Request: fold
Amino acid sequence: MEAKPRAKKSTKKVKPLNEGAQRDTVILNALIDSLHTIFETMMCTKVVMGAPFPKPKNTVQSGVSALIGMNAIEARGSVAITLPMPALNEISCKLFGEGITAIDKDAAGLAGELSNMLAGSAKRILSEKGMEFDMQTPQMMHGDGHEIEHHHGGQTMLLPVNMNGHEFFVELNFV
Reply:
């Protein structure tokens, strides 16, 4: 039996993506992969992604949100996660064994930590594709009708996420 030749490892450095739509797709896919990994490994649950669509306005109906900036040479932007109370409570139960009953500092802390995990995991995936991002400290917002203001002129895309019948949202805005 003849041995098969081994594939050579590529020593080429991955080139940064400069095309807007292609770049956005790569960033969106990194966020989706990160969400699946975080929820499957840390909460032993699956999430189902809805189709992303342009966000019509900055206002959020309710819950708590965390916005985190991510900047690179090829792109600058931000990612936000918004957790309405039912999703927030479910995530808290999965992670800590007890629910959250109010939008308070614990709720904001949980949203901030999830945004850090999400952006950090996506940053690792993007680094493997040649896009090196710096992350900023998350900003937390909460309450009925709060606004998420991305600090870039690009179109904000909204990605609905469903976990055990509870919906929450991830936003992506990169230019």
